[in-house]
Amino acid sequence: MNLLSFSFKVSRPRFWIYSGGTYVVGYALGFAFLGDFFRPEYYLYLFYFFFPANIFIYGVNDYWDEETDLLNPKKDEKELRLQRRDKKRLLNLIFLVTGFSFLLMFIQDNTERILFGIFLFLSYFYSARPLRFKEKPFLDFASNYLYIMPGIFAYYLAAGSLPPGIYMLGAFFHISAMHIFSAIPDIKYDADAGINTTPVYVGKKASLVLCLLFWTSLSVIVVYLSEFYPLSFLVFLYPLFPLLLLVKRDLAIEKLYWYLPYVNTGLGGLLFTSMVVYKLFFV
Fold this sequence. Notes:
mainly alpha
């Protein structure tokens, strides 16, 4: 396997939308003129948050989870299972992306450096010791705000200011539910490996209730901010996921979970398109 192919596998392309899509949506929420999409910085960070950023996030995760991943069959079916012979190559890849990230900070202003630094900090210490947020109930889903940081960074890049607090609160509800929901299928494997995630700590049912509460809160915020625009009600697809699992206990979350990237991509694309059209033609 050559370095480029290895890099793609490490970066988990099916999850690129979680950081890259957040960046694109954040920029769409913050931009004012069509010319903002022709700025070279937009495309530089578009590339970064789709590819190198995901190498960093999941490369660090694979490096620190080598032993615990031995118990998880998902690593054979959907993700890369790190082999010992690849560990040095993975480490070199992480160093390469880290160096690139630090180079970018030289062309950023102070606020951009802080936002970018928070992203790198959370991305690293979500998996890495000594903090390893992923093993601490409630801090695990809170630290997953790392996926929202590209959107906050993009908003600032486009608007020169931070997004409104209600945007960041809604994002917190969404990413928290996403993290908890994605960790539910791993309850048994995480428990066997000694990883005390929120779902391991509170159990499957309570975790689904948390997801339902978080996603319902997000949905209410989105519908309110859109002034009850009909298409905004599609956001209620999110709380439908945990609700179905609470009602139909024979439904397998392992299968349902893999539909979430499609919902995220579809609704994220709709939000991006709607914001661009609205700002260009109706503002």
